[in-house]
Specification:
Oligomer: single chain
Largest sheet: 6 strands, mixed
CATH class of the largest domain: Alpha Beta
CATH architecture of the largest domain: 3-Layer(aba) Sandwich
Order of helices and strands: EEHEEEEEHEHHHHHH
Number of domains: 2
CATH superfamily of the largest domain: Nucleoside phosphorylase domain
Number of strands: 8
Strand content: 15-25%
Distance between the termini: 29 Å
CATH topology of the largest domain: Rossmann fold
Length: about 240
């Protein structure tokens, strides 16, 4: 395990497979006594049908191929790379589809969710093989070079998550504007949870803007969430 001099960043190399990833995650938590507001990133390689080798991606859905368990990482920021569906397999495969294929994300994510808030747990995968260039034995130097070329993207995501972690740590449970909005529009219980997520994301991306200006013509809660999401998805990421 590597730990930076200021003890703000650690790196654990898990090895291949879901079991190793889960064990490495649990070990990291136990060794460092991590808390709910700590950031967890799983960085690795994956195969895809047509994405270019070297492209970085962020998971918005993770499926464990063995038991069909599904997780949805909460991306409440605008990532500097495409978001994708990931299928975690027990064995390497070249049966490429529109999902990413890899072998660690499910083990990592399921374990990290026990130790941290889901908004701060994410999976970054760099494309190592595709239909045009199928998987072969990956050398350590090849994988290291893929990761090295995408360190800027990894750093950008880490910076966004750091901002989010600070906000979650310092904010009240009720986001700004939440009470004002639910007084004007009706929301189901599920929609209220989505509204809170949108407003937390709003605070990260555009804290100086009033979201009510974007939704003043909305007719109901569902439309409020749609309009906020549309605005947030189109908002440029600044570093």
């Amino acid at each position: 395990m590597y730990i930076s001099a200021d003890k703000q960043i650690s790196l654990t190399i898990s090895g291949i497979g879901k079991i190793n990833a889960a064990a490495a995650t649990a070990f990291t938590h136990a060794f460092l006594h991590t808390g709910k507001q700590d950031i967890w990133l799983n960085v690795g390689i994956a195969g895809h049908k047509e994405l270019e080798i070297g492209e970085a991606t962020l998971a918005h859905k993770i499926i464990d191929q063995a038991n069909q368990c599904v997780w949805y990482p909460q991306i409440i920021f605008s990532p500097p790379c495409p978001s994708v569906e990931i299928l975690s397999c027990d064995q390497p495969t070249t049966d490429y589809t529109d999902s990413l294929f890899e072998m660690e994300a499910a083990g990592f994510y399921a374990t990290a969710c026990r130790f941290a808030t889901s908004e701060l747990i994410h999976v970054i995968k760099i494309i190592s093989d595709n239909q045009q260039q199928p998987a072969k034995k990956m050398s350590e130097s090849f994988v290291a070079e893929l990761v090295k070329e995408k360190l800027t993207v990894i750093d950008q995501i880490a910076e966004l998550l750091s901002l989010l972690a600070n906000h979650l740590d310092n904010s009240n449970e009720t986001p700004r504007y939440y009470e004002q909005i639910i007084e004007q529009w009706r929301f189901t219980h599920a929609q209220r949870a989505l509204l809170k997520s949108c407003l937390n994301r709003w605070h990260i991306l555009c804290p100086d803007e009033n979201p009510i200006k974007e939704i003043d013509k909305a007719l109901h809660g569902k439309e409020v969430i749609h309009q906020l999401t549309h605005k947030l998805d189109a908002y440029p990421v600044r570093f």
